Amino acid sequence: MDKLLIVWSTAEIEVAKKMVLLYSSVILPRGYWDKAHLMIWGPSAKLLAENAELQEMVAQIKATGVALSCCVVCSDEYGVSEKLATLGIDMTHTGELLTSALKEEWKVITF
After folding, report:
1. Which residue range is the domain that position 56 belongs to?
2. Which of 34, 46, 74, 111 yields a CA-CA distance of 20 to 30 A from 12?
3. Per the confidence metrics, is the pTM higher than 0.90?
4. Which Pfam families does the protein's record reference (predicted)?
């Protein structure tokens, strides 16, 4: 099974819109990967919580079957955990997930 973990940490909106979220929205529908996970970590959590356009893009990504999680430590520090949870994003300790993915047969890409 081809599995991809996308780690999104940048607060750069153009990178989010034109690469991270654009690619995430097509990877399962087009059959590029069998399983995909978008991990929101660091400054991207604050950016997403404050930007309605990005929130809509993430909702569309979730609808395609891509799993979503966010670093709960980061989102708590930014005060955005509740907002991101309402978007259907799992609040988790992302270090554990990243470590597991790296040790298993996941491909990992970071932005």
Report:
1. 3-110
2. 34
3. yes
4. DsrE
Instruction: Give exposure, 10-29, as e/b (b: 16+ Cβ within 10 Å).
Output: beeeeebeebbbebbbebbe
Neighbours of 32 (CB within 10 A): 12
pLDDT in tens, 51-90: 999 999 999 999 999 999 999 999 999 999 999 999 999 9
CATH label of the domain that carries residue 76: 3.40.1260.10
Cα(84)–Cα(75) distance, rounded to whole angstroms?
A: 8
What amino acid occupies position 80?
V
pLDDT tens column, 40-58: 999 999 999 999 999 999 9
